[in-house]
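Duplicate of earlier report; Diadenylate cyclase input re-posted below.
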Amino acid sequence: MPFSFTILTIKDVIDILLVAFLLYKTYKLMKSSGSINVFTGILVFIVIWVIVSQVLQMRLLGSIFDKLVSVGVIAIIVLFQDEIRHFLLSLGSRHSTNSLLRFFKGKQKSDRGKEDIMPIVMACLNMSKGKVGALIVMERDFPLDDIARTGDIIDASINQRLIENIFFKNSPLHDGAMIISHKRIEAAGCILPVSHNLNIPKELGLRHRAALGISQETDAMAIIVSEETGGISIAYQGEFHLRLSAEELERMLTEATMQ
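Output:
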């Protein structure tokens, strides 16, 4: 029997790239939420199912696996409902629209963004020097109205002194999170969902866990100032960026604003 090559068309290449992209996004979501072991177990089960049903063609065992797969789809939806919601959120974000607007508006948006970012950066630097704990959540595409309602509504312009006063150690709002939305301080003293990721370093406290939790459930960016060390960190897309300098903090906030 002569050996023949299978010619890949452009459609086949696009198909492979799309599947690889979906697997990569799923892997990142599972890794950030601490469910990577469950995800790996599902992949192993799928491989065994394909081998039993398609390669070895075991009818009885294959039919049992088929029934488990049909029921397992519903179980996966229930088990990973937060991860699925986050994945659909990332697909439906307005990044492409914002990129198009930046193309037409150009530098004006960037300058305006810096006016809103610098008070936050300077406030974080001052609180870092005084080892004043702080947790600031920057809303992006996903609305944080439910989170804001857990605290006190402020609805004030972004101001360095106001931020520092809210997180002052004797302030009644210093323990909660501040929500910044639509270039305004929307609320303070808010309660965030706490991440239960077992891979979080032990030296990181409740503020860091809360910041990671909100970054896993939404597309928000959370800034943390440690009360113990004064270090400035960011939780974004389910990952930590620890011990940031002033330049790194400004760069990350600017990039998030431009997206």
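Residues 106-112 have pLDDT under 50 and may be disordered.

Merging into the original ticket.
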